[in-house]
Write a structure and sequence with these properties.
The protein has 255 residues and is mainly alpha-helical. It has one domain. Strands 1-2 form a two-stranded antiparallel ribbon. A hairpin with a 5-residue loop joins strand 1 and strand 2. The longest helix is centred in the N-terminal third of the chain and has 31 residues. The model has no long low-confidence stretch (mean pLDDT 88).
């Protein structure tokens, strides 16, 4: 059996496991959509003075698309790695003929597929329910999704290496992720002059949100690319990949 066939079967297995895990399905697919519907409905007719009067939903939909992508590629992927490691499943699979690249690649590919799916769902709901204008800048948005998914997958694997056990998984991952999401402007724009905004600029979350919104910003012409923001996201992803490669372990924590 060639490597491509093995990789495809392993990816199918990962997708089946994901679909049969209700918590993973909810927090990865349903939760971002739920937030989109709640805040989008509450602020349907609102405009954002901070962004020159742009409709709230025109900002919020691409922002939540980025949030869904990050949830799948960072938080969900990190949690799955920790669970498999601490349950001894990674160690067991490591002892089989399954290539290491196929195993890790299937994890990442499944996270990316789910991230792309939730991104598409968010945008579709935004267009159907809230009249969000779709820009003619799809190449730019595809680049945002590719850079964002690759970088946050690397960061997800990296954070999984510092989570010591199953009990610490959610507190460490979401305790780090959600505060940064809030101050980065995922749910509402944060004034650039505020101290929270300045802190957020250090992290890649804010830059991915800004790059995503730039594609949907109806005030701006051009390609919609924010190469500076994407470069920062990519650099974080590269640092995460290096960190993960140095610290990755197959065996559960010794107790």
């Amino acid at each position: 059996m060639n490597t491509a066939t093995v990789a495809f079967r392993q990816l199918r297995y990962e997708q089946k496991v994901f679909r049969r895990t209700p918590a993973a399905l909810f927090f990865t697919l349903a939760f971002p959509l739920l937030l989109l519907v709640i805040f989008g409905t509450l602020n349907r007719n609102e405009h954002i003075p901070l962004l020159g009067g742009v409709r709230f939903t025109q900002y919020y939909v691409p922002s939540m698309a980025a949030f869904g992508l990050m949830t799948s590629c960072f938080a969900s992927l990190a949690g799955r790695f920790v669970y498999r490691r601490e349950a001894g499943l990674l160690k067991r699979v490591r002892a089989t003929p399954l290539p290491v690249g196929v195993l890790i690649g299937s994890f990442v590919a499944n996270a990316v597929l789910m991230g792309v799916l939730v991104t598409a769902l968010n945008i579709s709901v935004g267009v159907a329910l809230y009249g969000v204008a779709l820009p003619d800048r799809w190449p730019a948005f595809v680049l945002v999704v590719l850079v964002g998914s690759a970088s946050f997958c690397a960061l997800g694997v990296a954070i999984s290496t510092v989570v010591p056990n199953l009990e610490a998984t959610d507190p460490m991952i979401f305790g780090l992720f959600m505060p940064i999401v809030f101050i980065s402007g995922a749910f509402f724009p944060v004034p650039p002059s505020s101290i929270l905004s300045r802190i957020a600029t250090v992290f890649p979350v804010r830059h991915l949100i800004q790059a995503s919104f730039a594609v949907f910003d109806v005030r701006q012409g051009g390609s919609g690319l924010r190469l500076g923001d994407l470069a920062i996201v990519a650099l974080w992803g590269l640092a995460g990949a290096v960190f993960a490669a140095r610290r990755f372990r197959w065996e559960p924590t010794r107790r």
